[in-house]
Amino acid sequence: MSGRLAVVGLGPGDPRYLTPEAEAALGDAEALYGYGPYLDRVPARSGQARYPSDNREEGARAAAALLHAAQGACVAVVSGGDPGVFAMAAAICEQIEQGPESWRELDVSFIPGITAMLAVAAKIGAPLGHDFCALSLSDNLKPWDLVERRLDAAASAGFVIALYNPVSRARPWQFGNAMERLRRHLPETTPAVFGRAVGRPDELVSVATLAEADATPADMATLVIVGTRETRVIVRPGRSPLVYTPRAAVEVSA
Amino acid sequence: MSGRLAVVGLGPGDPRYLTPEAEAALGDAEALYGYGPYLDRVPARSGQARYPSDNREEGARAAAALLHAAQGACVAVVSGGDPGVFAMAAAICEQIEQGPESWRELDVSFIPGITAMLAVAAKIGAPLGHDFCALSLSDNLKPWDLVERRLDAAASAGFVIALYNPVSRARPWQFGNAMERLRRHLPETTPAVFGRAVGRPDELVSVATLAEADATPADMATLVIVGTRETRVIVRPGRSPLVYTPRAAVEVSA
């Protein structure tokens, strides 16, 4: 079987974040699959077919790309950020496990990228400076009480918390509920970093407190980092503040 | 004040992972600071001074680089992986907060990179496929009972766990203790991925079970990813296995 499939992380959207390995994989591909807005970030190449699809069609997109590769083509599936973090890599693996035996023989590779929490953290300092977790607030694929249990566990054990997919039109109340949940464990003054579209013209990165977080605009493309009791804000004259979590930890949240 | 400081993530060590943004920052620098083996990864440029230092000298290295930048130089501090993940970014912020007021006026930037857990995950499939945490097993900067508490919280709430700094000569028993701790929450068959030196000639990525993990070789440069009850291994004829954590989660570990 001669086909190949690469699952490629584009990073946050600016070409300055695209690794040479990802660039090479995009150049090799005869066919590109992906969520439309992510595909739009990849410059057109002659002779390269494009198959955009909608969000929340990850399973069908993964199966179509695998089928195409199994027919002998060199296929790339593009992902925003890193494909292994709330993106296409797991969907591809699910389809390989459930699909025809021949898909297990395919040459499949996963090409990492700068995921949103790393890009947002870098824009503001070092908020992930010590132990941290990454949690999707979408309850499309897990029950909300599991999200709450994970918020409780992470905040009470002193992890910094990076929240992916905080808000969507179909999930209007979950983010406020999550902030209320975190305030049970953390002081209202705990820094919360909001970042979206890093490296793109509409980039916006700001700092709020946990008390103000619910009232801070956020959408599906926003990444929120909630600090710990030890996270600090450095005010700087004439410059935006830095937010960081010290490397040394002594205290566990109550 | 005309000096500049960039804290640059080199990724896992292969130039294929170095972003164009990081490449540009290294090219702009008049002086490079960093842990010796990381500096050795950066090709020499004429007219560029190099200041290598030992591991565990992060505070002194950060202060020296800030002082140099405050004198008007364009300085880069290099970090393996991502500077914000158990690396130099937090040390730089600590020194800015504690140092002379003038350091707050400096043009400081943080340039993200591919951190080890993303590189190792990509080599084996999608083990971080759902909610996950990143935890350093080093107890140099936090008490061991805090590490244990975080392991308990993460495993019992069903987070995949990426372990940085699992073993060093000065910390021989901590990794075995951590695996024993995780076995209280997770089945002995839970997949554990071991990865080191991704993208370098001595790259090694393998899968063990949680029962076998203590007996699997690991050192300071190894990154270990311990799955959840839902993490799966796909056996492939003639190819290495894939490990992934499904996007959908229903079960919380007991």
Describe the structure in your own words:
The structure is a homodimer of 254-residue chains. Chain A has 254 residues and is of the alpha/beta class. Chain A has seven helices and 13 strands. Chain A has helices spanning 20-28, 36-39, 58-70, 88-98, 116-124, 144-156, 174-183, and strands spanning 4-9, 31-35, 49-53, 74-79, 107-111, 125-126, 132-136, 160-164, 191-196, 204-209, 222-226, 232-236, 239-244. In chain A, the strands form three sheets. In chain A, strands 3-2-4-1-5 form a five-stranded parallel sheet, with helices on both faces. A five-stranded mixed sheet of chain A has the order 7-8-11-9-10, with helices on both faces. In chain A, strand 7, helix 6 (144-156) and strand 8 (160-164) form a beta-alpha-beta unit. In chain A, helix 3 (58-70) packs across helix 4 and helix 6 (144-156) runs parallel beside helix 7 (174-183). The longest helix of chain A has 13 residues, at 58-70. Chain A is globular. The mean pLDDT of chain A is 95. At the A-B interface, helix 1, helix 4, strand 5, helix 5 and strand 6 of A face helix 1, helix 4, strand 5, helix 5 and strand 6 of B.
List keywords for this structure.
homodimer; 254 residues; alpha/beta; five-stranded mixed sheet
Largest sheet of chain A: 5 strands, parallel
Q: Write down how many β-strands of chain A occur, each being a DSSP E stretch of 2 or more residues.
A: 13
Supply Rg of chain A: 20 Å
Assess the beta-strand content of chain A as a share of residues: 25-35%
* Average pLDDT level of chain A: 95
SSE succession of chain A: EHEHEHEHEHEEHEHEEEEE
Structural class call of chain A reads alpha/beta
Terminal CA distance of chain A reads 56 Å
Number of helical regions of chain A: 7
The pair of chains with the biggest contact is: A-B, 81 and 80 residues
Assembly state: homodimer
How helical, in percent, are the residues of chain A?
25-40%
User: Which term fits the overall shape of chain A?
Assistant: globular
